Amino acid sequence: MYQLWFGRPRRAAARLAVVLALVLFSGAAAAESIRIEIDGVDRAIADNIRGFLTLGRYAERDDVTDAQVRRLADRAVDEAADALRPFGFYEPVIRSRTSRDGSRWIVRLKVKPGEPVLVQSVDVQIKGPGSELAALNQLAAASPLQPGSRLEHASYDRLRNDLLRTALENGFLDARLTRRELIVNPVERTASAHLELDTGGLYRFGAIEIEQDVLRDELLERFLRFESGQVFSNNRIRSTQFALEDSNFFSNVTIVPGQRNPETLTVPITIRGEPIRRDRYTVSLGYGTDTDLRGRFAWENRRVNTRGHRLRFEVTASSVLQEVVTRYIIPVGDPALEKLEFSAGYINEELGDLDSERYELIGSLTQAMGDWQRVLFFKVNDETTDFPDGTSNQQLLLIPGISYASMPPNFLTGWMRTAAYYFELSGSPETLGSDSSYLRFYSRAERVWPLSGGPWHLRLRGEFGTSWVSDFSELPASQRFFAGGDRSVRGFALDELSPTVDTVNSSGETSRQSIGGEHKVVGSIELERDIFTNFRAAVFYDTGNAFSDWSTPLEYSVGVGLRWRLPMLLIGFDIAQALSEPGKNPRLHLNITQVL
Questions:
Q1: For tag attachment on the chain, is the N or C end more exposed, with fewer CB atoms within 10 Å?
Q2: Residues 99, 37: contact at Cβ < 8 Å?
Q3: 576 vs 580: CA distance, rounded Å
Q4: Which residues on neighbouring strands pair with residue 502, listed in sequence order?
Q5: What distance in Å separates the CA atoms of residue 596 and residue 588, rounded to the nearest whole number?
Q6: What is the pLDDT of residues 170-195, one digit of tens each?
Q7: Reduced to 3 states, what is the DSSP secondary structure of residue 418?
């Protein structure tokens, strides 16, 4: 962990923190030469009016003359009246008034929308073989366009489009609207809607032709979300496209519906797949105050055979972790959602003031289940733990377990997906031949909420872990809990927070050494603000600890941070001050990651 050594550390960090805080809470508002105020209607209607006004396009110009402003303000009355019609107000009374506030014009529109047009009747007729389809018949009942309601043109447009879209999604590819009318009588302030949909015949998937030599046909067919004879659905085609593209067996996948046959009511499908490059090499470099320089090299054979097997070899190195792992992956069941994985690895890791050297063999079954991914695993862990007093302990653990993780909605998630959750339950019973018995639960969660649709975001992050162990002193380092560091309680060093023991070195000096705990609690509240393109600033409060006694108090800290996202580089740093331990200097938490 690096601290700030330019000038006095505490003073320099404090100055930088003040600068970041000022950046975070200052908004660079563009100077307006014209301010438009709209009174008398709710925000949605006011926003629509503002979007209709020619005046709005001049708001930030500095070359607008007084005559132009007055002329545009007069025009705004008619434009505002037009903007009210989609909301059912056909007889508004609108007044405009202009005034000056220094060099800025203020144009205020006072709107009295008047009595609205009310929907008198809604007539939706569905004809053809799809007339009994529940999804179609429910649309009219669910629409806000109902007799007695205020007319909103958007509700009519939405109902009309939903009828046609739903028919097409359910296989009625010849569906068309034979009547679509919205009749408005402004004098009587009434409106009637008439929609008639002819569904046409129900189409099904016809012959499926597959053109590829990457996978065995029986394996590729397990990726398909449709089969011959099923009701035609573009959603099923898209799902199949995504499944094949995400499989990483193909560089390009095309699924082409053929010419539909109105006599047999079938649509033939052609699937073409081009093989992806067999070997993939990945090199990544990064830097963090927790790890110093870190790097990873990976080689993956993505097409071991036509049965879809994969082989991956990874080497990871940093000042606190050295790891070599080989993985072999086999698709099973639904290959887009399930896989078997076998791995063997060597890990040398510093955890607090413990050194862990272990050999691991792992077998796991991964299954995607809706919004969650479940992993059933069995791990053989032969681990040697070196303690600060010079002693060591070797343990053989047989560890069955289960984990659940939330699935991201997609892979293009901007700064980060809005929510991520992980839960794991594992244990090592002596009845299986383990050298010690324990049960361990660990969870973490993170979620981001946008505030009022603006540049502000609230991020909450938390971790909780607990274990039940017959003899904690025999528990290997990798199964103990530690807290502190870049992604934990900032302001403290990596794995600094945990129960400690006092050791005496050769010079007779006594020092405290972190040895891990049975439990862990961490929480973080972060307020973030977008400041420029690819920049985000934050203020945060962290709290937490790792401990073996539930009465142990939690440590806490505060700080500010900045994240800078580049196409191939992510730079993030936080300045955190521990408050629960007086006398600690501020810490700079820096992360630099580059993918080559």
A1: C
A2: no
A3: 12
A4: 512
A5: 26
A6: 999 999 999 999 999 999 999 999 99
A7: coil
